[in-house]
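Input.
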Amino acid sequence: MTQSGRAGSYDGGTYGSAIAAEGWHLGAAGRADLLPITERMLDLAGIGSGHRVLDVAAGTGEQTLMAARRVGPHGSVLATDIADRMLAYLDEAARKEGLTNVQTRLIDARLLELEPESFDAAICRLALMLIPERDKALAGIQRALKPGTKFAAIVLSTAEKNLHISESLAIARRHAGLPPAPLEDPGMFALSDPAVLRSAFERAGFREVAVEIVASDQRFASLGAAMEHRRNSLPEMRPLLDQMSDAKRDAVWKEIEKVMRQFQQSDGVVVPTERLVAVGTK
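Output.
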């Protein structure tokens, strides 16, 4: 969730900015469709009362708070991320909710130097596909887990199943004078193939790996609300937009509005999405 698809952006250039963090924070309401699949991820990870949970690339941490409620006062959740501004929003949210069992730590997912076999579960929501040197990150997660415990992650399905994302990025690239983006790894859709996702888990030593395909609808009260979410939720577009004139930026957003308009219904905007949730056992 909080890593960009390119190594340089992963190092803080995209999601690490104050603007990106604020946008992601403001876009939380538009991610309400993630609640059921997030609950499924927590279920698959086997998270329960008293557990110690590792949340990798936690971002602003909606899933962190959900895990913290599950583990209760006798458990804890360690949320790691490479963007300190994202973690600041998470700290604030946990404090407001009175959750004293949440800790945050600024850590590169590729360098998870945590006590071996010290966690009862691990999760990662919408970030695993964006992490460079992914095998290092997965090895670190596997090392931190106790034997027999589980790691569960959510990633995006294919570009075709997430047109609101893929077409928005394609429009911005075209107006920036760039060719259509290839299937990048790391990248938004790098783990969209269940077989590729399963293989990544297995290379890290996880057993009994299973992948589920989950479709859902992202709902907005109006086209304006949908566009506001789109402006806030794709920091990957900002480097492209920053290079453009005001006129070109306006043209980009007008084209993206046409994309979003195709999902408009009588009661608002309903955007179909598809994601994968995977689980493996140490």
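The chain has eleven helices and eight strands.
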